[in-house]
Task: structure prediction
Amino acid sequence: MKNITLSSIVIIGILLLFLAASGCITTQDDPKLEPVSEEYYAEMDAALYPYMQSVDEQMKDITASVWNAARELDGVPKKGQAVNLALLKLKSEIPLAYDVERIDEHNILTAIAGELNTSLQVGDEIITNQYTEEDFRAAGSQCIVSTHTEFQTGNQGIKVSAPIYDAEGNFDGTLQVILDGTYLFSGPAEELRTTYGYTVWVAQENGVVIYDEDAYEIGSNLLEPNAAYTPSFMAAANDILENESGHTSYIFYTIDWHKISQTNAVWSTLVPGYGPTWRVILIDNVPPRHELIEPSVTPEELKAFVMNAYVYAQTKGKTAALAAFNDPNGEFIDGELYIFAFETDGTILGLPYQPVLIGTNSWFAEDPSGVKYVQRMIARAQQGGGYVLYLAPNPSAGYSTELKLSYVIPIDNQWFIGAGLYEHTAPISHTVSVDWQTRNELIKQVRTMRYLAAVEGIPAVTEMIMDPTSSFQREGLYPFAITGNGTILAFANNPAIVGTNQLGTLNSYGMSFAREGISLGKSGGGLMYTLAWDSGKQKEVFVLDYVEPAGNDTYFASYMILE
Amino acid sequence: MAISLVITVILILVASLGGLLFGASIIFDQSLNDPDVLVHPAISGNDMIITIYEGGRVTELAQISLEIEGYAPVVQNVPGGATEIVYVGIASQVTGTRAVGVRGIFTDGSMKILKIIDFKFT
Result:
């Protein structure tokens, strides 16, 4: 009996050795950590410093704006035109703001300047991040900055809050701004990547990741068990959370999750206001830029691929079609092309290479510039289908961010399908240079137009758009105003089209910028990419467009050229 | 005896229900697999393009009537073998969200709604 047991152990041991040698079993921490010189870490520190500074300056500007606006609202009735204008003005000063809210002392919303499609209504109770008079007393003359939160609107981010007092100096509620926390970090991160070749991730001191290039990592907790965490990464994470600054190395997966390698990191701590502190970790785990690749699929072939899937869905039914689209070895995989499918509420129905995401809602998904690309695809599908542009990491190019052109088509009112190709040769594909400061200026410009329209009327603003010396003009930005029926009211860059109807004007991707822009404005406003005619260059150029509704069926917009 | 009777009745009911569902699924599948004509409308600037794909009666399709909510239907002939019918300028004044219908008119004079879908024109 003893011999049989011994032989079994030997056989199992041999089998395990064989499996290990064949690569079926690997240790999580292989390869071994190599020593890193102090000079190397010092170089990384030198790159981290300006990054920290730009995030810190953004937060200082934001908290100063919120605090000052709260002081202007002291003694002002909780609702009414004065509050509405103050909220619009504050929103124009903070390009990262989704919503600006006035809340009474019982956490009831009394006024809001936000996205029109928000589910929040005046009179609703704000249930996330409720702060009391005592909380603000403890914060002193600082704004309270929340932890990373999923808000009632469905947006995720950070909330900055300041107290408001009545004429007698009694606590009278709060002024709150919901921020796009991702863009706070991703804008300067893109600059960091292109200038220094590094990237960053950010965690709260409680371990919650609040920024990562891989959006699906945001919200995960470093202190909770995770099969992807190697022992050296867990040790490094503890070191990072326990110390305000330092440097470390760990073994972790490369960005494509295909292999593990050594990542070197330096970190420092940022205090954005009263509340959590942020550990900002700069790492050198960035794939090298790849060679320019000629597109292997044309936009026409992309459209034909989607049309073929459309016929399949219409003739076989939803269940059979989704099963076919989600089969990674099925007939709807062709090179880099595959079919994706979504409900028109943003729920993912089909993603053959990321089945774990099926059933999740992606309504608020943003690309690195803040374009809500799933919402753009839904809007395009609701026009009967067509091409949509956005930035996305390209798996076949080391996950570097590239311009993606997708073609979408609705199956019925409930769901749509599409496929995409990477526009490798597009000017912005490789330099990905949506300059974050210009992008923020773009949003500020349009929101300022909206605020001025509320104060002085729409005609006053259209006159200012046509005046190249007016105060809100910015170099490199091209503001315009359009009515809901597509008539251009003002556009200094091309006065010839003022007064004309542009609903029928198409770019070479068959997009009507007027229909798309008005549709975006009607849904509350936001960012979108398009191809627009540049009269100076006499050719079409890729642009990033920002739109906001101005009331009275008028929409203000502006764009920046991306090449 | 009574128990056997109840079981027999339940079995008959289950079998009937199964047969009914099976029949319904066949009808449903047949309607999907063999549409009279599979079409898809889309907005293209001020135009609307109706793409004609396939179907059991595609060769009999003589005309298409495009119906935009709030506007009069517009009928166009379908030349033999056509895969696209373009309604030039039909959407030039159309904004907002509207239902769009495509009705097929066949060579024997019969008509059938081929597609109904909501579009956001702006």
Observations:
- The domain at 436-561 of chain A is CATH 3.30.450.20 (Beta-Lactamase).
- The radius of gyration of chain A is 26 Å.
